[in-house]
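Checklist before submission:
- one chain only
- standard amino acids only
- sequence pasted in full

Submission:
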Amino acid sequence: MAFGAESVTPRSVAIGNLLQEHHPFFVPRYQRSYAWEDQVTAFTDDVKDLMSGNPHVASHFFGGLVCIEHTDHTQPRPHKYEIVDGQQRLATIVLTLAQIYRAALSVKNDATEHGDSQAAASAETLATDTRDRFLEWRNANVSAGVTESLPRLALSRADDDFFQCLISGEEVQPDRESHELLAAAEAQIRTALIDRALKEGTHQEQVAALDRIRTAIVSQSHVIQIVSSDRDRAYQLFSVLNDRGRSLEDADLLRSYTLETVHRFPKHQDKVAEIWDKILSAPSKDVSDFFLAYYPSTTGGRTGLPIFKELKEEYFPNSEASDESEASAVIDKVNEFRNEMELFLKIRKGDWPYKSHVTPGAAPAVTAWHKDRLRRLVISLKHELAMPLLLSAACSVDEKRFAELVYMLEIFSFRYKNVCGGHATAPAKRYYAEAKKVRDAKAESKAVNWGGLRSELKALIEKSAPDDQFKSALESRLRYDYGGAQRSNIRELLTTLEEHSTWLNKGGIGLPKPDTMMVFDLDRVTIEHIHPQNPGAFTSNPQLDAVCHHLGNLTFFGPDENSKAGNKDFASKKTTYYAPSRVGMTKNLAAHDQWSIAEYEKRRDDLLENACKVFTLG
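Returned file contents:
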């Protein structure tokens, strides 16, 4: 892509010259917040390399800095520079120079207390020179008769107050992720660079060590500064650089783009910026995951990474709002992002996305049992594939319909994915298409039912998880000794069968009917080995020892049952622990006179048959 020479001027410049000559710098509200993590360690390592004395590491290139030059000849300093790309590295550099400044003041004070006037003078010179050349500039307001000190770098609205407190050394508490990252960056810089310098022997040696750090940054470190007086050209370059280098998240690019589309309407732009600040105050992974779910939820199709282009083209096809109506539409869409992201994060935590409304004298539409199914689906079964559909449903149907969907997906995902290992592609297509269909139905005020989806998922079960395959996978995969994931599956299977025990005891005819008054907290359910895991010499049985961790030898205790059965033999456990249990399948064990391989095999076969009856879509 070509950029006109008349509007874009690149140059290689040392960091010190950059801060002295081209200031003040400011980060516009459409830029992302501070986001460096591991990159800070890489930065301090680069600085240490420059200080090593290695002749092969005499300088370091720290990447590009894209700026828009703003000119106002009515101001004492007519030029200022809007950072379009590169704020992360420049903010980190300024944090480091600020720490050198404060450390030099500390050395000055300590040297003065110890009567080392020469070292105190050197430290004060270093501190003053660092502040005046690289951190602050003096703005003389002649008409007001005052001169004020202003920062050479100001960050975005979300970060600048916190950033300036860090620069000045004030105590401040972070209230968003970017603040925590800024504070962590400062701590890393202090540990890796500043503290090492302050461990030098004399005060004069400490000043020299701090000055070596400063020299490495301001004289030996360079960037390519690209200055444009044309906003469109700068933004175009910014997008191209980041599409290639992926230094920004897709949401940051979308934020930038939406603010650019409404730049002719400042009040609308302020509102868009405010909403984006709230969206991007969440951890970046949460934001990224939301958009990866939102896109298929609204379009019915999948997308790959990066998704900025797809998001832009789908939701903001006009590159510039031509009137207030179009600018307002941008506000509405970004606000929809915020509202749906809050819903997405709630669902992903397993929290019920509806407010409870109970009509006096009427039964609630959903019970605690229904709400627990959502937590099982997304937390225990980790069925993230369904998030686009769950998001659409939560936005479009009442909670009764939502509960029906969740239970259906729980049954399907456990059998198809968790047990039989079915491939994600086939259900994903159906989930995404259904997600779009649900939103369209709401827009057209049409009723929603899950009959079509149920039939499609049932067909996938018949193809990839039929009864014989399901039984075989249950027996071979759901073993206690296979660790955490399978233990979670064992808890899901056993508790779900227990919840359907009344229906199963009546023959299990028709669609499964759970007892919705029976709710088990899977985090507090204890899996019990009927034949003990570590049998003593008198209770060991080679046949049962071999299947100790298999499904037929496993039951569970409820969360309010304090099991101390441990490695006791069956005869000791059946009366003391099994008979009084409120868990039906555990209580039923007390009816056995003994626990032999025959009882094990009968119970295994019953569990497998019942699993096929319960985990079905009809």
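Reviewer check: The first strand starts at residue 8 and ends at 14.
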